[in-house]
Design brief:
The complex is a heterotrimer of chains A (332), B (283) and C (279).
Chain A (H helix, E strand, L loop, with lengths): L1 E3 L3 H9 L3 E8 L2 E6 L5 E2 L18 E10 L2 E7 L6 E6 L1 H15 L6 H8 L1 E6 L25 E5 L3 E6 L2 H8 L5 E2 L19 H5 L7 H6 L7 H5 L6 E8 L2 E8 L20 H20 L9 H5 L6 H10 L5
Parallel strand pairs in A: 2-7, 7-8, 8-9
Antiparallel strand pairs in A: 1-10, 1-11, 2-3, 2-4, 5-6, 5-13, 9-10, 12-13
Chain B lengths: L1 H16 L5 E5 L9 E4 L32 E5 L1 H12 L8 E5 L14 H4 L11 E2 L14 H7 L3 H13 L6 H5 L24 H14 L9 H5 L6 H16 L27
Parallel strand pairs in B: 1-3, 3-4, 4-5
Antiparallel strand pairs in B: 1-2
Chain C lengths: L13 E12 L2 E8 L13 E6 L3 E6 L2 E2 L4 E6 L3 H8 L5 E8 L12 E7 L3 H13 L7 E7 L8 H10 L3 E7 L10 E2 L2 H8 L6 E6 L2 H14 L6 E4 L15 E2 L2 E2 L6 E3 H5 L6
Parallel strand pairs in C: 8-9, 8-12, 9-10, 10-11, 12-13
Antiparallel strand pairs in C: 1-2, 1-7, 2-6, 3-4, 3-7, 5-6, 13-16, 14-15
The chains are: A alpha+beta (332), B alpha/beta (283), C alpha/beta (279).
Chain lengths: 332, 283, 279
């Protein structure tokens, strides 16, 4: 079945009655997933929205619990774990894949992160296939596809004037059932496309496993300015810090995004820092993306969304790095 | 441009072969239109140096990664890079004798769509004010008659309007610190942001904490901002950071007389020296 | 007042109470912690960690040095913001605690072996949990040797155990050295741990080693142990990295694809040889 693009606002409106609907929007010059019904315009361009969708599952700053102290005593203690039904509408395949990476981190390996789980359970994912790609896109080199993602609750296919609808989960089917009044029979053809930027990941994780001491790290990290753009715009970077705010006797514990590119990230209380310079930090980031995560969760932690390629101020580019890894002789 | 690029490569080759510099910081070819900074150690690698309309990054800051170099560092300098080096020398972060400045008069850079960069539109020193070698011919300075135009517009707003304007700006900040990290005036060994034990800056991302960062940083570099516009160029969310910097420059100019950071190595920044005639209304 | 029973959320601590504080050295104190109703907060195995917090100040991971019927002990050195505050704390201070985290010393694999414990400074804190376990299960293990060194006599942690309790145990020897003695009253060995270890000349035959201390001590002790013929698979150590979550999520304590908080902190030297050298 399919619905007309002109009916999209009505569908979004209806969903927004029961859930927060986050859609790719341009808001005051910034492109991000923003609540439908607030200021801003829908933006389904070739380029991904600048800010990744991870914020809705893993907010940049998230309150965890609050407490009150009185002398030696802790007088009040309350866990804050708020969530409401949310729809992520208009995800591209790369961003959908990033959610699967986050699921692995927050929901597996012995501990379930309650703050993440609650929001994840409340989330409905709606993917749209890409009809054009940006020059920085390379998802199909990283195991993804611009043509959709099987893990989305609902997959939409852009047919030009309308969207073809495919419910892929029970949750997705339930939502689609309520769109019936806008839907017609299928016609038209789904066009498949491919990314222009290609990298060859074949053997890269394995090769990197022997390259920890390789001179390449010194060389590529020279130009890094050590900012957090790559990590904060990355849909899969999940590292966080935990800190406290105090206001008199009241305190709140919160967690917030952290970046492995910052020197403070691994600095220990006594001052020792196992990753003292940008060489170690860039190495850890690329190895985490391309080797460590693969070893631990059997996925690439880079989904090829191209945000860091587009936004790094000095073009420290993961695709060029992969090319370079293919070329250099293993050191060990 | 290509003739200048050829001259640059020749000069670089000569400097490296004669051992006058140990390496050269310039621009090289990146993935697309990008011309990221590169570091050339061997004469046979000089063809990797690129000089064209896409060489946008300011190179001065890289000198801080090698404060005690074994031999001179050659560095390509446009007006803005030259001013960055002067700033670092004045802050005693870099020794003038440790660097060889290869001057490149510049007619402005463009983005991937070929539009002139805002920072280049506003540039007042297209010729490097300080250099050891200069390539090509000097280019005409165009000045920037609109330097404070935007500041004047903002000054007309009421307090509430100003607060709303800047709150909207800082609400968008994602605290990636790219502005700080590329800024040649930001050269504290440890930034106040990273002094967590003292607790100047909370780690939470909200409008108030973002403002604490943005405003403190602006004040901290007030008389040392060289107006290279790198902070604005690298900001992933497009914050108009130069408006804030120019407001402070404008105020400093009216208090202490006109001053341009990083242009003349012999003139100290107004907040870095005491003069009897300094205004002292705060006393 | 709400009683916190939020263990189902692994990032939320339970509120506990400091019931005793013992000064070990000028910069190390042992804090005894129980739940508000006087119970043991949780039951860790030797080597496991606890995330300890003074709620308004901060949270940090510490090894659990001992446990009893109704308490856990943490020996904590003053090194940063939280530990400064902890050293100012008094009995009755309510704190946050979550855990236990991480893997444990291989108490099963070590059964039937002689044990050589080597500690330096505060590095005896994690080792002590295993020493106490081995002494409580004395029949399971052979000879026990404890080699311990600190900067000076007054910097020796757990003096009562070292000087009185442990030497009294069956087939248990304690060998103590100090880097230097300015008091002139120290009767024992003076010198660094690695050299002292070499002079003791332990045989690798049927013996497992547990090694913990500052990186420089570990480095040279490993050379000594190699000289004595110990294999990497017989040498066990614990690692320290900055941690925030303790449950393998927040990212920062990784060494290669392993997280020290979850896959560590206990590793054999053999396991470490397969990981990137970044600790």
């Amino acid at each position: 079945m399919q619905f007309k693009k002109s009916d999209l606002p009505k569908i979004l409106d209806s969903m927004a009655k029961e859930a927060t609907v986050l859609a790719p929007m341009k808001v005051k010059g910034n492109s991000k997933f923003a609540p439908w019904g607030t200021e801003g315009e829908l933006d389904f361009g070739a380029q991904n929205v600048l800010l990744p969708p991870k914020d809705c599952l893993f907010p940049q700053t998230e309150k965890m619990y609050r407490f009150e102290t009185d002398g030696l005593k802790v007088n009040d203690f309350e866990v804050i774990n708020e969530s409401r039904p949310t729809v992520l509408f208009g995800l591209k395949g790369c961003d959908m894949q990033s959610i699967l990476c986050m699921d692995d981190v927050f929901l597996t390996k012995g501990y379930v992160d309650d703050f993440y789980k609650k929001k994840r359970d409340d989330l409905l994912t709606v993917c749209i296939n890409c009809t054009t790609v940006a020059k920085e896109c390379f998802c199909d080199s990283m195991g993804g596809s611009p043509n959709g993602h099987a893990a989305a609750d609902i997959q939409l296919y852009d047919l030009g004037e309308s969207y073809q609808v495919k419910a892929q989960t029970e949750k997705g089917q339930k939502a689609v059932d309520s769109w019936q009044q806008y839907c017609n029979k299928d016609e038209g053809e789904i066009k498949e496309i491919a990314c222009e930027l290609k990298v060859d990941m074949d053997g890269v994780p394995e090769k990197l496993a022997g390259m920890f001491e390789h001179p390449i790290w010194e060389e590529i990290s020279r130009k890094c300015v050590g900012c957090g753009i790559c990590t904060f715009l990355c849909p899969t970077c999940y590292c966080f810090d935990i800190d406290t705010t105090k206001d008199g006797a009241e305190g709140t514990k919160f967690r917030c995004w952290d970046s492995c590119m910052f020197s403070e990230y691994t600095r220990m209380a006594g001052g020792h820092n196992p990753r003292p310079s940008k060489k170690e930090r860039v190495r850890n980031r690329f190895l985490h993306k391309l080797e460590y995560f693969k070893e631990r969760y059997d996925k690439n932690l880079c989904v090829g969304c191209g945000r860091c390629v587009a936004k790094c101020p000095v073009n420290l580019d993961i695709t060029s790095f992969i090319d370079q890894v293919k070329e250099v002789a293993s050191h060990e | 441009m290509s003739q200048m690029q050829e001259e640059l490569r020749q000069k670089a080759k000569e400097l490296l072969e004669k051992g006058e510099v140990r390496y050269i910081i310039g621009w090289g070819k990146g993935r697309f239109h990008h011309r990221p900074p590169i570091f050339i150690y061997q004469a046979e690698d000089v063809d990797k140096l690129v000089w064209d309309e896409y060489c946008v990054a300011n190179l001065g800051k890289y000198l801080l990664d090698d404060k005690f170099p074994e031999g001179k560092i050659g560095i390509c300098v446009r007006g803005c890079d030259s001013r960055a080096v002067v700033r670092l020398v004045q802050d005693k972060q870099v020794k003038r004798e440790d660097v060889c400045l290869i001057g490149l008069p510049c007619t402005g850079k463009v983005d991937q769509e070929g539009r002139e960069l805002v920072k280049c539109r506003d540039c007042m020193h297209r010729n490097p004010p300080v250099y050891d070698i200069v390539l090509g011919e000097p280019v005409e300075e165009k000045g920037n008659p609109d330097r404070f135009k935007r500041v004047e517009e903002l000054e007309k707003l009421s307090s509430d309007e100003k607060y709303e304007y800047w709150s909207n700006v800082f609400d968008k900040c994602i605290r990636c610190y790219a502005c700080r990290n590329v800024c040649p005036a930001c050269n504290c060994r440890e930034c106040f942001v990273d002094q967590y034990r003292v607790g100047w800056q909370g780690k939470q991302k909200n409008c108030m904490q973002n403002q604490i960062f943005g405003l403190t940083r602006a004040y901290h570099i007030a008389d040392r901002c060289i107006e290279c516009g790198e902070c604005e160029r690298v900001c992933p969310v497009g914050l108009p950071l130069m408006e804030l910097n120019r407001k402070l420059i404008k105020d400093l100019n009216s208090l202490f007389g006109p001053y341009e950071a990083g242009v003349n190595p012999d003139v100290k920044p107004p907040l870095g020296e005491y003069r009897l005639e300094d205004p002292e209304e705060y006393m | 007042m709400s009683e916190c029973t939020c263990h189902e959320n692994p990032l939320v601590p339970q509120v506990c109470v400091i019931t005793d504080i013992k000064k070990e050295t000028p910069d190390v104190k042992t804090f005894r912690v129980s739940t508000r109703d006087g119970k043991k907060p949780f039951t860790p195995m030797p080597g496991q960690l606890g995330m300890f917090s003074i709620l308004p100040v901060g949270e940090a991971m510490f090894s659990i040095t001992a446990q009893g019927e109704d308490y856990l002990d943490f020996a904590i050195k003053k090194t940063g913001q939280l530990t400064d505050a902890l050293h100012e704390a008094e009995i009755g201070q309510e704190v946050g605690l979550r855990g236990p985290y991480g893997n444990t010393f291989p108490v099963e694999d070590c059964k039937g072996h002689d044990l050589l414990f080597i500690g330096g400074g505060i590095g005896l804190a994690p080792v002590r949990s295993f020493i106490r376990y081995a002494l409580e299960h004395r029949g399971d293990y052979g000879d026990i040797d404890i080699v311990y060194g600190a900067r000076s006599p007054e910097d020796l942690c757990f003096k009562e155990d070292l000087m009185e309790n442990w030497p009294k145990e069956k087939n248990t020897k304690v060998h103590v050295t100090v880097d230097q003695d300015l008091s002139g009253e120290w009767k024992g060995s003076v010198g660094f741990v690695p050299a002292y270890l070499e002079s003791l000349n332990f045989s690798p035959e049927g013996r497992k080693v547990v090694l913990c201390g500052p990186p420089i001590m570990i480095k040279f002790c490993l050379q000594t142990l190699a000289k004595c013929g110990f294999k990497d698979s017989e040498v066990i150590t614990t690692l320290e990295m900055r941690m925030k979550c303790g449950i393998g999520k927040c990212g920062r304590c990784n060494i290669g694809s392993k997280y020290v908080c979850l896959d560590g902190p206990v590793f054999t030297m053999e396991e470490l040889s397969h990981l990137p050298n970044e600790y």
